[in-house]
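WP5 quarterly update. Target: Transcriptional regulator with cupin sensor, AraC family. Source organism: Runella slithyformis. Length: 291 aa.
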Amino acid sequence: MRAPLRKELNVPSASFTTIELLESHFDPNWHFHPHYQLFTVLEGTGTRFVGDDIRHFEAGDTVFLGPNIPHLWRSDRAYFEGNPELKTHGIVVYFTEDFLGEGFFDKPEMHVLKQLLDKGLRGLDIVGAARRMVQNSLKKLAVSQGFEAVLALLSTLHQLSHTSEVEYITGVGYVNTYKVSETERMQRVYEYVMKHFKEEIRLQEVSALANMTEAAFCRYFKSRANKTFSDFVSEIRIAYACKLLVQEKYSVTQICYESGFNTVSNFNRQFKNLTGKSPLQYQKVYMQRGE
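Structure tokens (predicted):
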């Protein structure tokens, strides 16, 4: 995972942009941009990073993000190994708050939509029937043009603004404090963790990659990621464990060690602290959801 890059999305011929993504893997750069975005995953698995939130993703993952929230859907390692049977598929819509003119969302009739945009500043997970609605809408948007596309987007936002089937993604008060000038330093750290999270990660080695003392690195990382480096590593490991749990191929003990934890008790404790459930409870809830 790379430190977030500012992503530019200028399409002068349209007021907003819809892109259907069909690639061997999703964009590997952790980035941010001044646009709102609706995004759904139709195919692919991996680890999702949005602001200070880290979790496993798979087909169906659907979000609404406000401007300048760093994000990355990092495909699993197998997607980077040239396997022709693995591919990713997603649809994303980008728009700015003034895409229909300055002050459009400030009008009285747009009050509920304005509230949705405000909620999007923390990022929203879209779940339940609302998820299916957004996915179907994005599929239609991918083949729509002109005024029809504008109406389709507004209709989607209108329906989304009236549902309770959304959950905040980032923590209260989260702010993107990353700077483009920090890209190289954080890139080295994140890439190292993503490659070695199954092994013991020594703070001394990681801080050396950032050219900092251990104490300085810990302060720096927490100020940027809104969490300690140790918590960051644990969340990556738990996200990977979640992926293994839903596959139902391994025991909890096997998943514990495969995810980089040294003891089952520590794994169970950290898993419950992060997800609110034990590994077996998480697996049960997932399977019931798919019935």
